[in-house]
Amino acid sequence: xxxxxxxxxxxxxxxxxxxxxxxxxxxxxxxxxxxxxxxxxxxxxxxxxxxxxxxxxxxxxxxxxxxxxxxxxxxxxxxxxxxxxxxxxxxxxxxxxxxxxxxxxxxxxxxxxxxxxxxxxxxxxxxxxxxxxxxxxxxxxxxxxxxxxxxxxxxxxxxxxxxxxxxxxxxxxxxxxxxxxxxxxxxxxxxxxxxxxxxxxxxxxxxxxxxxxxxxxxxxxxxxxxxxxxx
Length: 231
Prior knowledge:
Largest sheet: 7 strands, parallel
Shape: globular
Number of helices: 9
CATH topology: TIM Barrel
Structural class: alpha/beta
Strand content: 25-35%
Number of strands: 11
Radius of gyration: 18 Å
Distance between the termini: 12 Å
CATH architecture: Alpha-Beta Barrel
CATH class: Alpha Beta
């Protein structure tokens, strides 16, 4: 099944995303929970799913804490996302890896607004870290949802690649029963998606398919990753 993520068209309203996905021939929808109110309205999403005959196949946990009325912590947001997916009947929740280091967030003005994340070399283990190491299987069994951990991209600082996440390499990802394989994130590490899939394929429940050309999330034909071989 090939689904369109609402995050791919994050500047559009959710109804328009469903409409475009149906016209383009997609088989389903991945809903990314974000600051658009409609991404969290179960009844409305169900109405759109029925109207456009597109099942919601996955719900993506929020990227950050700026979601009105949602918890600030990673574990709290994940619990709410799982409940949302259960109400929608979506079988998969895309979950992120825990942060490994602290970071200072901010922005600068230089002709236009630029956001930045400055990693600080201070290891940390939060409740979400302990949940990811010990609690995933229990939540999956209790809620009847697949929690598919997503591999994350490299950050760069002064030209050096920084890994701000725990367990963010193919060998470490083998600890998880279910994975979301993000191809552009592999590209930021110089990894070949077909080679990683050959290693982790039996654990892959969900794929984020986009290319990489030095910039993340390019359309599949526009980049240097071996996506045709992966497919």
